[in-house]
Design brief:
By secondary structure, the chain is an alpha/beta fold. About 40% of the residues lie in helices and about 15% in strands. It is built from 9 helices and 5 strands, in the order H-H-H-E-E-E-H-E-H-H-E-H-H-H. A 5-stranded mixed β-sheet has the order 3-2-1-4-5, with helices on both faces. Strand 2 (about 95-100) and strand 3 (about 105-115) form a beta hairpin. Helix 2 packs across helix 3 (about 30-40).
Length: about 240
């Protein structure tokens, strides 16, 4: 019963390893292999990603260097942020989601949704992150792909006004921003792909629900099966 409840609460996204860890934290003595057997008995099948989606980002700007260089595990929060934009379809057309993630604890620290994938959308996600977490680190790095939204004057001026350093992936190399790309894959695989949306407002509600789950409830293997919120508290204590 506990396994079924945890699986349902994860939007059917937990596989045997994450589910075993969740059971262990609930005082159950169970390993990965036993969890796998019980999942098979209960008919619990974790969701798997579908073929990735792409949309035209416009002409890329290769002038900004890749300063991040795939250093995806900084020891302190508010030192390395990454961002990207993805799209979600509703019956009224497309909605666009821009997010900002702190690599240190994999938390979505800021996001914004709009009907247009422009520089204003990218700026709103960044300013939302700044307002929520008020970083004081000098030289906080923001990394993204070479999309026109991030090379636009509006966005670059926002970075400069907050003393942030810009970094961009190499052209055509999605692995340079792999952690942020993985979040979008999880968002769609674990939740959005099973839903249909009437309008933009229903997309916003669904995205907000998943980000709340992701930040505060979802166990993340890259940060020792902690939630991003718990990892933030752990790093703040060390600091």
């Amino acid at each position: 019963e506990k396994m079924q409840a945890i699986f349902e609460d994860s939007f059917h996204s937990y596989g045997k390893r994450r589910l075993a860890f969740a059971l262990q934290t609930s005082s159950f003595s169970v390993g990965v292999f036993k969890t796998a057997r019980l999942m098979k008995t209960l008919g619990l099948v974790a969701k798997r990603p579908k073929k990735p989606h792409y949309y035209t980002m416009g002409k890329e700007q290769p002038a900004t260097p890749n300063l991040l260089k795939r250093a995806f595990n900084p020891p302190e929060i508010n030192t390395r942020w990454v961002g990207d934009i993805t799209f979600i379809r509703s019956h009224q057309g497309w909605s666009y989601l821009a997010t900002v993630m702190d690599l240190a604890n994999r938390e979505i620290v800021g996001y914004s949704l709009s009907r247009t994938p422009d520089a204003q959308l990218a700026k709103q996600a960044l300013t939302n992150a700044i307002a929520q977490h008020q970083p004081t680190t000098k030289g906080l790095m923001f990394h993204s792909d070479q999309g026109v939204q991030y090379s636009a004057k509006l966005f670059q001026e926002t970075l400069q006004n907050h003393n942030m350093v810009q970094s961009m992936s190499r052209r055509g190399n999605c692995w340079d921003n792999a952690v942020q790309e993985r979040f979008f894959r999880n968002l769609k695989t674990e939740y959005l792909n099973d839903l249909t949306f009437i309008n933009h407002q229903s997309v916003v509600a669904a995205v907000e629900r998943y980000i709340g789950f992701y930040n505060y409830k979802r166990l993340h293997s890259a940060i020792d099966y902690l939630t991003p919120a718990k990892k933030r508290k752990e790093l703040q204590k060390v600091a």
